[in-house]
Amino acid sequence: MASEPSNKPDNKPDQKKGPHLQKGPVTDHQSAERALPHAIGPEKSILSSMFQDPQEYIALAIEGKLTDDHFYHPAHGQIFSVLQELFEQSKPVELISFSELLKDRGMLANVGGPSAITEIYTYTPTHAHFEHHLDIVKDKFVLRSVIKHCTEAITRAYEDQEEVEALLDNVESQVLAIREGAEKQKEENISDHMKQVIEHFEEFISRKGESRGIQTGYPDIDKMSNGLKPGEMFIIAARPSMGKTSFAMNLVEHFCLDLNIPSMVFSLEMSAFQLVERLLYARARFDKSKIMKGFDPVKQDLLNIKKASEEIKDCKLFIDDTAGISINELRAKARRKKKEEDIQVIAIDYLQLMRSNSKQAQNSREREVAEISAGLKGLAKELNIPIIVLAQLNRGPESRVGTSGGGGKPRMSDLRESGSIEQDADMVGLLYRSAYYADNQEDRDEEDGKAQLVIAKNRNGPTGDVPLTFIKEIMRFESRAWGDDEHE
Description:
Blueprint: H1 29-32, H2 40-52, H3 54-63, H4 74-88, H5 95-104, H6 114-121, H7 130-159, H8 164-182, H9 190-206, H10 219-225, E1 233-238, H11 244-258, E2 263-267, H12 272-284, H13 289-292, H14 299-314, E3 317-320, H15 327-341, E4 345-349, H16 365-383, E5 387-392, H17 418-424, E6 427-432, H18 441-447, E7 450-458, E8 464-471, E9 476-479
Parallel strand pairs: 1-5, 1-6, 2-3, 2-4, 4-5
Antiparallel strand pairs: 6-7, 7-8, 8-9
Helix pairs in contact: 2-3, 2-4, 2-7, 7-8, 8-15, 11-12, 12-14, 15-16, 16-17
């Protein structure tokens, strides 16, 4: 009796998987019999070109960031690895010595013997399609990577059901890593870099030293920071009731309404309603307390509120007021909003209210804050945008009240769990209002409205004090010139 036909596809190599891919769970019998995406012909073609003209085509493969993992057939990956090694050592590549080298290393039988090497050498009569075949091999690797990570995600979804947020963040970061790895990169030579340097120099001259990054709306801050630049984390820290939320919203107002920059705010303390209300009254320069005291707004107040509301309604500002949001959830939401709306800046109010759900962070507050701080800095670099993070200071300034004690001026050491925050931040600004720490009512009256942002750390510029004026009626900070009794 004739045997039943096999259901196994006639693919060579026979269902082999590269060492970088592990067999994972499958959902049905058909997927268990399905070979991973591969292109054996193009793999042989590019290896053949490397044998016949190693200086040209091994160099092109290295520039294209090809690795042995890109090859589906394990033997092809081993051959490429040795070819790359010979190229980097400036040793000649020719058929006989190459076979002998593999024999000496005990690898010749693994790749199919001398006949397999000869077959690859003579496989491609022309090199015209090298780059096309290279792209095919890399595309198949991307497809296999997608299958691999999805399979791992399925396994973890069954096994790690208590760490859902960590799983989502891991899956999302792996998918982004696949995309970044699949993007073609062009190596630039020195003339390309020099062109960029000259263009930047000419732009700097034409702008007469204006900020290169996103301007904050406060000239003294922009002068010291040269603007908020992509990938940077700007920590703004203060004691409670100093106005750090108001200051952050003043910055966001400038980004969204004056510069028309899509922005996102993560508010862990105040609701979205409260933030928009503050934004409206600050923009309209309207004192909300008048209504609470029974005064009716005048016609100009109503016109200002109407104009401000129309501006805010049309701006690209996105507010997430999830209380106690985790670093993984915040990163996932930020990535999605970056993709959908191309947000250019993020503000977070505030760091110590965030959580990390990793097992390592459960028993150590210091470790939890370190993971959150590092995660936010990593997000800034990943999305290539500046991130403004508000933070709480400890009670250190309260011990320095009065004129003799330094007027409550904060220091970097006052940051709660400051070690990791100081390390990760590109710039640290300590916000305070001197009237809060005055010895008596006379001094409080004299200092009323005065505020300072102490730039205690600035990785790309000078440190120093930025004088500000706080208008508490409309919750707004404005630039202030140094008085006669003050010194920078």
